[in-house]
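Recap quiz, item 2
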Amino acid sequence: MIRKVLIANRGEIALRIVRACQELGVRSVAVYSDADAQAPHVREADEAVHIGPAPASESYLRGDHLIAVAKQVGADAIHPGYGFLSEREWFARAVRDAGLIWIGPPAEAIAAMGSKTAARTLAISAGTPVVPGTTTPLRDAGEAAATAAQFGYPVLLKAAAGGGGKGMRVVREAGEIASALASAQREAKNAFGDDAVYVEKYIEGPRHVEIQVLADAHGNCIALGERECSIQRRHQKMVEEAPSVAVSPELRKRMGDAAVAAAKAAGYVNAGTCEFLLDKNGDFYFLEMNTRIQVEHPVTELVMGIDLVQWQLRIASGERLPVLESPQPKGWAIECRITSEDPANGFLPSTGRIAHLHLPSGPGVRWDGGIEVGSVVGLSYDPMLAKLIVFAPTREAAIARMERALKELVIDGVETSREFHLRVMADADYRAGRVDIQWLESRLPTLLAQQAPAETRAAAAIAAALLADRERGGRRVAATPEGTASVASTSTSPAGTTGRAGGSSTWAQLARLESLRS
Amino acid sequence: MKYLVDLGGERVEVALDAGGASVDGVHHTAHLADVEGTSVRLVTIGGVQHRVVARRGNSRGQYTLWIDGWRFDAEALDERTRAIQALSAASAGPKGPAPVLAPMPGLIVRVQVAVGDTVQAGQGIVVMEAMKMENELRAPSGGVVRAIHAVPGKAVEKGTTLVEFEQPA
C-alpha cells in the first residue's frame, strides 16, 4: 500500500482525499498557496507545505515544483484531485518519471482520452456512438463556418483541452460563428493555455448521463452505474443525482458496456467517467472521458456503497477489484453544488469572509466542503465552496431530505447558490424528472423570479422593521454623552417610545442625530 | 412606531408596538433575539420561529434578509424618514438611465458599444472576465451611450462605473 500521498489540490477535494488517506492509514501531505494558509484541508492533513502565491499558475499549477516537494517530504504518491493538473498528460508522466506513483490513469490513457478530439477518434474506433463533429481543431473562422454549414446549425464550439464550460459556445446562425470562435479560443487560451477549439453538431434536448468506471492494473474494468447531470447552467453542472430517472437496468447495462469498452480501448486504469448525451429515444452518444475523480463522485458512492477515492489509492497500490460484475444502484442520492455565486445577480461570483456557517446534518446528509468560519472567498479559484449530498431510499424522499438540509444550511458572508437549489427542488418539472440539459437555462428566469409565500413576505417585513427599530434605538442612545449605548443597542423590545420622547425635544434630538451622521 | 418596508419593490406597512407588530391590520406578537456567537437572529412571530440572517446594506434601514429559504432586499424606514426621503428625491429632479457598474472585481475583455450608440435594455454592453469565465454585462435600461470608462485589458474594482448613458434626445 502507498504510505504517503502528496495532495496536489485544494478546497473540498483536497479534504476529501485527506479523509480517504486517514481511513486507510496512509499519511497525507497538503500543499497550499498564500491564499489557503488557513484552509481546512491544510490543517486536517498530517503535513502541509507552502508552495507559492495565490495565483494557481504560481502555486497549484507548478507541476515540477509539486514533484520536488513530494520528493522532499518523502511522499511515494501524488493525488491530483480534479481540475488543476489532474488531466495533464505531461504531469502524470513527470510524476512517474520521478519514481512516484500517480493516483490516476497512465499518462498514455490521459493522452488517449484527455483531449476531446483524441477521445472521439478512439471511441469511433471502439464502435461507441458519437455526435457528428470534427476531429481536428479548427484552423480559422472560414473552416468553422464551412463545417457548421455542413452539419447544419446549431453547432457547438468546444475547447479541446476544456472542461467546466470554459471555452464553449453554442452558435445558432452563420453570422455569429466568427466572434464566438474568437471568444471560445480566448477563454480556452486563458483557462488551459491551449486555444484548440473544435465544432460538433448540437443535439437539442438531450440529458447528460455519465457512467463511472473503475479499472485495476490487472485488466479488470467495471461500470458503477450512471449519474444524471442534466441540471446545468452554461455547461456547468449544478445538481447531480444517481441513478437517473431515464435509465432502465437494460439501458444501464448497455451504457456501462459502452463505457467499459471505451476505457479498455484507452488502456484505462483507476477511476474515470464516460460522459454521454442521452436523447429521448434512449439513444446515447459518447461525449468524452474525464480521466480523474469527478466533483459529483459522492452520489455514486452513496448508491453503490463504495468509497471511490479509497479505491483510487488501492488501485494505484496494485490491488485488484473485488467484484467483476457491475452492481445495481440502491436508493437515491442527490448532490447540490454550493457555489459563491449570486443567483439574484446573474450568478456573478461573490467574494467575502465566511462570518457564520451552520452545516446541515442528521440522517442521510453528507457535506463535502472546503470552507469554515473565517475562510476568505476570493477570485483566485473556482467558486465551488462545498457539495451538499443526500441519500434516501427513494427519489421523492431524497428531494424532501435535500430541501430540509438546504433550509438547515446557513452561510453568512458571501452570496451562495442555496436559494437557487431550493427553487429547483420545489420545481414541478424537476420533481417529475422532466429535465434535459437545456431545461435549467430556459427555466431559470421564472425559477428566480418566484415570489415567496405571503406569510414569508410578512415575516420578512416584520423582521426588517424590528431590525431597523433596534438600530434606531441603538443610535439614539449612542448619541447621548452618558454612553449607555451597550444597554439600548441590544434591546430587542419594539419601539413605540422613540417617537414620543416629549414634544419638541424629539425633533431637537433627531436634528442633532442628523448632524452627527456622516 | 410605523415602518414602511420596501420588500423588493413591494411596500408593506408594519406598525410596531410594545407587544408586537401589525401588518395589513392583523396584529402578531413579534420578538427579535440574537443567537449568541452566530449571525443568526430568531424572529418569533405569533409563536412561529423564523431563523433570519441579515446583512446591512449601504444606507440606513437597508438589509439583505435570508429567511425560510428566501432572500429579500428590504429597506425599512419609519414614516417620517420615508416622507423626508420622498421629498428630497422629488427635488433632486429626474435621473438619467442607470450606468453599467462592475458587479465584481475583474478584467475588462471588451466593450461592445461606442459613445453615441443607442442601446436597448438588456443589450450586452461590456464583457468582463472573473474566475476565468467571461460575463456579459447588460444595459439596465435603454439610452444613448454618453461616456465609456472601461478599457479592455484593464482590471477594475467592484462598483466601478464602466459605461454611462443619457436619455435619447
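The two ends of chain A are 66 Å apart (CA to CA).
The CA atoms of residues 105 and 269 of chain A lie 5 Å apart.
End of item.
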